Structures are given as C-alpha cells and as structure tokens.
Amino acid sequence: MPNRLTKIVTRGGDKGETSLGDGTRLAKDHPRIALLGDVDELNSWIGVVLAHLSDGAVAKTLISVQHDLFDLGGALSLPGAALLSAAHVERIDAAAAALNEGLAPLKEFILPGGAPILAWLHVARTVCRRAERALAGLAREQPEVAQALRYLNRLSDYLFIATRFEARRLGVAETLWTKQHSISGADAAGEAE
C-alpha cells in the first residue's frame, strides 16, 4: 500500500481555508467543512465509547459505524460522490431493532448519565443529531445526500437505544426526568399546598 499522507503539516490552512478532495478551496467555516467536522467529532466520540465498552452487540455495530462515518466524511470531501446507501440504513435499522427487542417501553424521558459509558453514548447521540442537522441543510441543495441523512437519523436513534441496552446490561438504573426536580415542578408543588 502506498503512503497516503506523506506530509501532515502543510500550512495550507493558515489563512482560514482548507481543501476538499477534488482540490476545491473552502473557508474553514463553510457549512460543508463544519459538517465534516461534526462527522469527525461523532466518529471520535464513538471511539471513546468503544475504548470503554466490552465486546458485544453494541461494540460490533459501532465498529462498522466508525467505518461508515469515515466513508461518509471521505464522500463529503468529494462533491458529487455517493454518500452511503440504502444498505447502510437497513443495517443500522436492523441493529436498532435487535437491541430494542428486550427493552421495556419508555414511560418518562431519560436524562444523560448513570454511568460513564452511558453518558458517552448520549454525547455521541447529541453530536450525531448535530451532524444530522448540518446534513439536512446540504440535503436541500443536493438531494443525493438523502440516504446519508436517513443514516444519521437512524444512527442517533440507535445510540439512544444502545444507551438503554447498555444500562440494562450493566444493571444501572436509567436516570429518568421527573417534574418534581425541576423548578417548574417545585413551583407547581408549592402552589398546590
């Protein structure tokens, strides 16, 4: 395999621009570059999760997800390139359905936390939602990104389900939102007295 990156420090971005894979120069705050950063950050947070997760269904899926996200980032750096496929979406859908099978129905909202791995999964989920929002903007201009948009939407759902699955596997109670702990709940309780 030939060397792909022979020079890491290029100084090419010193003036606030960067290059896409086709050589196009864009400002570092251009929406496409911001989206690339969101996808990269999401992949990094999934790496944090994997570094602290034992083998299992979630780890197996997230390893594939990391490769998918790397492919997505590469495709985003080449305008007009195909961005993921229906098969990617189907795979993440199937993984979410398999994890969700044994989980109890939700009766309240879940707050991030409970254990470090659960908190990191929630961070990955929220970063995924940010990437999804950024990709939605691109989708208005480029309909060919629709499958990638579906993938990120399903991935954020998968990460939420994975958090619940891991909480059950670890025997950690999910942190549920309760109105009594919020200021509005306290006010409502005080008025009722």
Residue-averaged pLDDT: 84
CATH first level: Mainly Alpha
CATH superfamily: Cobalamin adenosyltransferase-like
How many beta-strand runs? 4
Q: What share of the residues does DSSP label as strand, in percent?
A: 5-15%
H/E order of the elements? EEHHHEHHEH
- The CATH topology name reads Hypothetical Protein Ta1238, Chain: A
**Count of helical stretches:** 6
Number of domains: 1
Radius of gyration: 20 Å
Distance separating the two termini: 74 Å
Helix amount: 55-70%
Main sheet: which strands, in order across? 1-2
Low-confidence stretches: 188-193
Characterize the main sheet: 2 strands, antiparallel
The coarse overall form would be globular
Structural class by SSE content: mainly alpha
The assigned CATH architecture is: Up-down Bundle
Walkthrough of the structure:
The protein is mainly alpha-helical and 193 residues long. The protein has a single domain (19-179), classed as Up-down Bundle (Hypothetical Protein Ta1238, Chain: A), CATH 1.20.1200.10. Helix content is 61%, strand content 5%. It has 6 helices and 4 strands, in the order E-E-H-H-H-E-H-H-E-H. The protein has helices at 31-51, 57-76, 86-100, 116-141, 146-170, 183-192, and strands at 17-19, 25-27, 110-111, 175-176. The strands form 2 sheets. The protein has a two-stranded antiparallel sheet with strand order 1-2. Strands 3-4 form a two-stranded antiparallel ribbon. The longest helix is centred in the middle third of the chain and has 26 residues, at 116-141. The radius of gyration is 20 Å and the shape is globular. The model is unreliable at 188-193 (pLDDT under 50).
